[in-house]
Amino acid sequence: MSIARITEISASSSVSFEDAVREGIARANKTLENVQGAWINEQKVVVKDGKIAEYRVNMKVTFVLRD
Predict the structure, then answer these.
(1) Contact status, residue 5 vs residue 63, Cβ threshold 8 Å
(2) 3, 14, 21, 63: which sits with the fewest CB atoms below 10 Å from its CB?
(3) Handedness of CA 59, 41, 38, 2 (dihedral sign)
(4) What span, in angstroms and rounded, lies between the C-alpha atoms of 12 and 65?
(5) Which residues pair with 5 in a beta bridge?
């Protein structure tokens, strides 16, 4: 049996939502062990001069705790 923990993080990208998710997971992997998945619970954009300047995601990252 395994026990998991969930932590919420925010990530951003000037490229796309997908890139923001990728960057967020990559950063979570630097700190957390056994990352198993993520749930994207919010997406939003920052608009400057009428154009999208930044894509942001809030996600819940699941990681399994070691015994």
Answers:
(1) yes
(2) 3
(3) positive
(4) 27
(5) 63
Q: Over the stretch 7-55, which tens digit does the pLDDT of each residue have?
A: 999 999 999 999 999 999 999 999 999 999 999 999 999 999 999 999 9
Alpha helices by DSSP H, 8-50: 17-31
3-class DSSP assignment, residue 57? strand
Structure tokens at 55: 């894509």
Residue 24: which of 63, 58, 62 has the closest Cα? Answer: 58
At residue 62, the 3 state secondary structure works out as strand
Name the residue among 11, 12, 8, 24 with its Cα closest to residue 52. Answer: 12
